[in-house]
Amino acid sequence: MAQTARPLSPHLQIYKWQITMALSILHRATGIVLALGSLLLVSGLLSLASGPDTYARFAAVAGSLPGQVLLFGWTWALCYHLLNGIRHLAWDAGHGYDIPTVTVTGWVAVVLSLVFTFVIWGVVLMKGGAA
Amino acid sequence: MRSHLRTPLKRVRGLGSAKHGTGAFVIQRLTAIALVPLFVWFVWLALSMLHDGYAAAHTMVAHPANAVLMAAFSIALFWHAQLGLQVVIEDYVHTRWLEFILQALVRFLAILGVLACLLAIARIALGS
Fold it and tell me: Based on the number of CB atoms within 10 Å of its own CB, is A10 exposed (0-12), middle (13-18) or buried (19 or more)?
């Protein structure tokens, strides 16, 4: 299938970037990242099941600077994928297909994902840093 | 053309690129719906466990309500992730043997992940 030399239909570089395509690509990208991030849940639970020493090591890695950067990115990816996922569920139910609505809900998802991320990390900082 | 008794529908079933029906699509949506409230609960749990150390975190996850929700979260998360990655692989990997290997690998890893989570939750909740 991939090796045939027939002409291809216009691809990404031909089109003007629009919020619809950007958010669609971002939904997949965050989904893939979150699938990898699920290893974080596994390591957290396994360390908690293994005992205080292992859990302390997990907390130290999570609380390190690279750990915090990773967790911050993970938080945003979660918030965005969740909010945009609600848009997808609405579309699956047949709602919100007209272009103005799609644009508005798209921006709402982007802005709210940032708001949620900053609120969550506001709580983290108020409790005195990560992990 | 009329040499067999199968209907046209019976003959085309399973011939699409995905090789199966709508089951995966439906489960993808159902796990998505389940993950919305579970995500809110998970954020609350993670934030309240922050800085409280091993004993407090252990007690929280060991609470029956939290243990059950954590098990539900783990199952829904890995199921949803496997189905999502399956669609991505179906869309972009067109070499049949490579697609097969990737699909199998993703499933094996998702099952390992969920088993590890469930074992850890059981050990935390039932004491060790």
Answer: exposed
Q: How far apart are CA B84 and CA B82, in angstroms?
A: 5
pTM of the complete model: 0.86
CB A23 within 8 A of CB A110: yes
Classify the complex by whether its ipTM is higher than 0.85, answering yes or no.
Answer: yes
Name the B residues in 8-27 with CB < 8 Å from any A CB. none
Q: Between A42, A92, A130, which is nearest B113 by CB?
A: A42
Q: Could you say which of A1, A48, A130 has the minimum Cβ distance to residue B61?
A: A48
Token pair of B59 as six digits: 């007690």
Q: Which residue has the higher pLDDT, B12 or A20?
A: A20
Could you give the 3-state DSSP secondary structure of residue B53? helix
Contact list in B for residue A43 (CB cut-off 8 A) is none
Task: Measure the CA–CA gap between B58 and A56, rounded to whole angstroms.
Answer: 12
Alpha helices in chain A (DSSP H): 19-50, 52-63, 65-92, 99-126
Q: Are A40 and A74 contacting, i.e. CB atoms less than 8 angstroms apart?
A: yes
CA dist list (Å): A27 to A106, A127, B25, B123:
11, 31, 16, 35
